[in-house]
Amino acid sequence: MSSDNLSFLNYPEPQEGPKVPYKNETQTIPVFRGTPLAIGATLIHNIGFIQSQFWRNAGFDVIRQIPHLNEYAGRFDPTVIPVDNAPSGDVPTPPVQRRKGDKYYYTSADYHALYSSGELTPLAVVETLLPLVRRDVTPAGKHSTAFLESQVDIICAAAEASTERYKKGQPLGPLDGVPVAIKDEVHVTGYKRTLGTKLDFKHGTDATSWCVQQWQDAGAIVIGKTTMHELGLDTTNNNPNFGTPRNPHNKTYYCGGSSGGSGYAVSAGLVPIALGADGGGSIRVPSSFCGIWGLKTTHGRVSGAPSLSLAPTLGVLGPMASSIDDLALAYRLMATPAPASQDAISAQFPKPLPLPADRKRTKKIGIVRDWIDRAEAPVRAVFDSALDYYRQHGYEVIDITIPYIPEGQRAHVLTIVAEISSGVDPRQIRHLSAPNKVLVSVGTWQITAQDLLTAQRLRNLIMKHIAYLFKTHPGLMIFTPTTPIPGWHIDGGENELSRGLSDGKTSVRNMEYVWLANFMGCPSISCPAGYAKDSGVPVGVMAMSDWGTEEDLIDFARDGEGFLDMQVPSGEDSVWEDVIGKAKEAGTA
Q1: Is 167 a catalytic residue?
Q2: Whole-number Å distance between alpha carbons of 382 and 404
Q3: Which of 171, 481, 486, 512 has its CA 20 to 30 A from that of 360?
Q4: Rounded CA gap, 472 and 479, in Å?
């Protein structure tokens, strides 16, 4: 739905921010892994003086030094609610095109067509997938590192019911029988919820999140819950507790995180659609490193389940998919507003209706040049090519400014650490992996009320400026790379994977662009756009749009689909599973 035709609740007052020069410096933060990391984490966890030194060295006190912040009230929740002026009726499901060729990913349309013709059944697909993803068997499945658990009885029952519906010619819709994967952070009945830790975060509930329920009600089969970075507190998806899936395009690189398990599941061809959660802006990072599409939606905040994230004012969900069609389909289903009895905030959001094809569109891209210039050369080359493509297809490219970008990123990190720390009992910290012992200890005992309030004042300042940009330039897409680095290499090998990694410098770099949409509460989309020449790791580009304009983002991605297109992983170090091909072979054996 276009913001031109919407009214809002809680929309920021458009106000141009201070004119300040962009100034950013790459932080100098030591890297720790292995035994030094374990020793350092124990010291920081137990000694307040070392915690305070660590906090000061990270440079978070710079936020307090920003002039004029006292003129802004704190904004603790960035949720902006479009007022529903849409007619009543069902939400149409967008059409999904089938696979383009052998080098491309399967889509939900391939599964639906094969099921409808009787050539394949959902049960046959599940029987093919389970040996590949289960970690509770010996030997564990080839791709089990990406999956925390798969409840076989639940999965097979869903597959049998879907198979029976197709036999009767009564499928529930285009998603019926299609396998999907769900990040561990999200509630699913019958499954654990650990947030990537050794702890229990179900909080006594065994309900299924509203957004997952919408997929299941459409017939989708949850093939399992995927691994994530512990507490979602970094962007590698390195997890010593349950293992770390390698990048399907190059096994010496991380998938990215914190939704790296979901990113892997789509990128490796196991499922066409997966769900991630964005407590720290990282839902878009795996879609960049793994070469898939990712949409961060603020529709209903977290689509009817505000308690999904430890960080309720930051937690949002979004689908990942191997095609823009499947991304749109998954979004349209999951963004159906929840009943008021389940979530009063989600209930206020409009239905995710498609935009009229013949509407007048403003095609305008805004870039902050100094900010974009910080991308590394392989990323910048892909970004520039994508920008040229859009320019050649009718988009006007304009220069914009956003005040306090580096300071805003620090405010974002501070808020995440404070909120996640508030959801962890201090007695639980010792059970966390070494890197998170550091972050949660600092968050618990070093972040002051003044720090948190100052960060929310800065959030309000930037939100008002962003609103000013969107109202000054209707239809504006703020365009950046997804991340400035061309993948994150596993430098420490097996030792790093088994003991954890603390690399604050690369973490900050990796989040340099994605933090803005998360902290502002704006929707954004990450699109695969090319590859890093040396490593073959995918590079993504990202667009952020006005509040309530997810459908505009999908149309923007479709405009670039001729350029923004990815093939399945190939090469010596790549991993891709032809699930449909294997299921067909098994059926004819």
Answers
A1: no
A2: 26
A3: 481
A4: 16
> Which is the catalytic residue, given 2, 162, 209, 258?
258
Identify which of 305, 86, 342, 83 has the alpha carbon closest to the alpha carbon of residue 211: 305
Start-to-end CA distance of the chain, whole Å, equals 49
List CB contacts of 563: < 8 A, sequence separation 6 or more: 385, 386, 389, 529
Per-domain boundaries in the chain: 3-70+402-462
pLDDT given at position 287? 72
Burial of 34 (0-12, 13-18, 19+ CB in 10 A): middle
Residues of the chain with pLDDT under 70: 1-6, 84-89, 278-286, 299-317, 357, 565, 589
- Per-residue buried b or exposed e for 84-118, using 16+ beta carbons within 10 Å of the residue's own CB: beeeeeeeeebebebbeeeeebbbbbbbbbbbeee
Q: What is the chain's Cα-based Rg?
A: 22
Tell me, yes or no, if 437 is annotated catalytic: no
Cα dihedral: 489, 492, 495, 497 (round 10): -20
DSSP state of 513: T
282 is catalytic: yes
Percentage, residues of the chain above pLDDT 90: 67
pLDDT of residue 205: 87
The residue from 183, 225, 296, 437 that is catalytic is: 183
Burial class of residue 544 in the structure, from the number of CB atoms within 10 Å of its CB (0-12 exposed, 13-18 middle, 19+ buried): buried
In the three-class reduction of DSSP (H, G, I as helix; E, B as strand; rest coil), residue 200 is classed as coil
